[in-house]
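Quick question about two entries, pasted in order.
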Amino acid sequence: MRPAYDAVARAEATPGAVVDLFVTEAVADRERDLLIRARAADIRTALVTEKAVATLTDTVHPQGLVLVCRRDESEPAAALAHARLVAVLAGVADPGNAGTVIRTADAAGADAVLLTGDAVDPYNPKCVRASMGSLFHLPVLRERSVEAALGALRAARLAVVVADGEGETELGPATDELLARPTAWVLGSEAHGVPDDLAAAADARVRVPIRGRAESLNLATAAAVCLYASVRAQGR
């Protein structure tokens, strides 16, 4: 239920962020505080049957509660204006991976997540679930054009750093000075990596060291390593 509380908290801070709440009687009895807060935030609430909830979700075992939220349509240029740490997902199509990176970026204290290129819709149900409520904690931005996304990062004076297994520089002491600057980490899909044009335009291509025999790290793990390297370097 934590994501539901996160969504309601967002509606408390931003009126209109959540429009409707559909809930079964059993959940309503158990989560009375949630309903009280939802009504106080002017969220329309309705008691529905478990069958009705099942038709509103694509999960096998729905939890008895559905929220209808408005999408965050923030413009990247405005949202990135004072950012010091941003995760950029370039062409990441897997919703589970994208949602987990959003959660990781939130945990690391990143200021935003930007999806660009042929990336998944962050409001895909699987992505929302994988974010575990983090979708409501920080700006999650979308810019289809890679060129426009790069322009927004440059305008915000962010160092554009690509996470690349073949990168020229190894993550470690050699990257501390770079990562102490406001930084946008660019991460690509596990299948195709970061698009060539975006990688070529980056300030640096950095590889995460692999000391054992594993071929690579999965996307969420690589994101965590890279983002927390910036957290350390920036003294956050």
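Here is the second entry:
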Amino acid sequence: MAVNPLVQSLKGKLIVSVQAYPGEPMRHPETMAQIARACELGGAAAIRCQGLSDIAAIKGRVEIPIIGLWKEGHDGVYITPTLRHAVACVNAGADVVAIDATDRPRPDGRTFEETVRDLRAQCETIVMADCMTIEDIRRGVACGCDIASTTLSHKKPAIDTTLDDGPDLALLAEAAKEFPGFPVICEGHVHTPADARAAIDAGAWAVVSGTAITHPTSITSWFKAAIEA
């Protein structure tokens, strides 16, 4: 299968997620742009970020591709939940748009497949399917997405008891076996360099790490917990 040249450039590389949560001191587009630039200097091949202001600010600061999304809400489909959100991400400067690929209801009534179809009719963009299960990855492949990712795999309603605190290596291996040559990116719970290496060894096209690199509040809490245990 043909792979988009931009997606091909990410093979075997690190993508860094640069996001801050509402109410945090770092939640400011200029701060996010500075962190993104620092990650680029460290060797990140792309930046994943959320929100129109952050996408635009980071796009103006780095030379590597931007994977953009727009989170709205906390339950159900909240990662780029509608066509409107997806088009806005493209217009803000995202090179790749990440969209929840589950079959859960969306605020605008479209299915995931309809969202991808209508987005491609309006915009020239690369689409990343954020997946929870192998069924979601199949859905993303079937409707012509350029990339699938394991972003939502730790949010399954019934968590697989074989999952530990690391990435979902079983899902990666299953997807790599079923769709050889298709870009399936590991995202979620990549907390150490060893986690990232294990994801590549399991068949990941590339690896996204966020919290362990760009979220000092979480990193500080990990050290604090270890010291006080």
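Reply: The first helix runs from residue 5 to 8. Residues 14-228 form a domain with the TIM Barrel fold (CATH 3.20.20.70). Hope that helps.
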